[in-house]
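From the shared-data thread, chain only:
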Amino acid sequence: MIRETREKLKVSRGVFARQLRVNERTLEKWEQGRAKPNKQAAALILLTRKFPDTLKRLAQLAA
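Structure, as C-alpha cells:
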C-alpha cells in the first residue's frame, strides 16, 4: 500500500521519504514489508492516499 501510494503521487522514494520526514532506507523497509510505520506515519500515509495534496498542504502550513 505504501509503494502504491508513492507511485500514485508519481514521486521517487527519496522525495516521498523527505516529505514524510523519514530516512529513505526506512521508507524502503516499509515498502518491502520488513518494517511497519508508526501510527502517526501510517495515518499520514493513509491521508495522503485518500487526499493526494495532504503533504503539500502540511508543508505550506509549516513554512
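The domain at 1-62 is CATH 1.10.260 (434 Repressor (Amino-terminal Domain)).
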